[in-house]
Design goal:
Length: 194
């Protein structure tokens, strides 16, 4: 990872672009979560149902404050014990959170990543949409080369780097119910996708 690559990716994100970048286990597609047109591009590229919602990743829990509604029913001590790390939590969403992030869900799926590229990118550009870099029904890309094979020149930038070594997209848990929505292994299913 170089500062130049992070700066390049950040410039594209600031202009409403869509990029690919390495995460804990797979390459992700990302954009500024507040940019409706960029999110729509990602959904179109993936052939993804918008009702599924999307994950938002951050470098710190403070970056997620505009999205999550804290309440007595939310065990934040349990959540924060897993962060930074490869666990995504569905938390109550603030009313301002757009439907393109929530989908038909009541909450918002969020993660504070420990991956150094994600950390650097989120500190530079802010929070990001994070969904696996693959068309629906295909295996998530684990390399920049596979991302190019899937999407060709349809992305604004592919950030070079290596994934964190996880075997499958991250675990997803519901913070209020404690329900495991997706286990971190191949073949698991969830309404949200990393």
């Amino acid at each position: 990872m170089s500062i130049w690559h992070i700066a390049q990716a950040s410039r594209y994100l600031a202009r409403g672009g869509v990029i690919a970048y390495p995460t804990e286990s797979v390459y992700g597609l990302g954009c500024n979560p507040w940019e409706a047109q960029a999110v729509e591009r990602i959904l179109t590229l993936k052939h993804r149902d918008p009702n599924k919602g999307l994950i938002v990743i951050a470098a710190t829990i403070e970056q997620l404050a505009p999205l999550i509604e804290l309440a007595p029913a939310v065990p934040m001590a349990v959540v924060t014990r897993t962060w930074p790390g490869p666990v995504t939590w569905v938390l109550p969403a603030k009313k301002c959170v757009p439907v393109w992030l929530r989908g038909s869900q009541g909450g918002i799926a969020v993660r504070v990543s420990a991956h150094p590229v994600v950390q650097a990118l989120c500190l530079s550009a802010g929070i990001l949409v994070s969904t696996s870099a693959n068309p629906e029904g295909y295996s998530p890309a684990k390399t920049a080369r596979r991302v190019r094979a899937y999407f060709g020149n349809q992305l604004d930038y592919i950030l070079p780097g290596t994934t964190g070594g996880g075997m499958a997209p991250t675990e997803i848990r519901h913070a209020v119910t404690g329900k495991l929505l997706r286990v971190s292994r191949s073949g698991s299913a969830s309404s949200h996708s990393s």
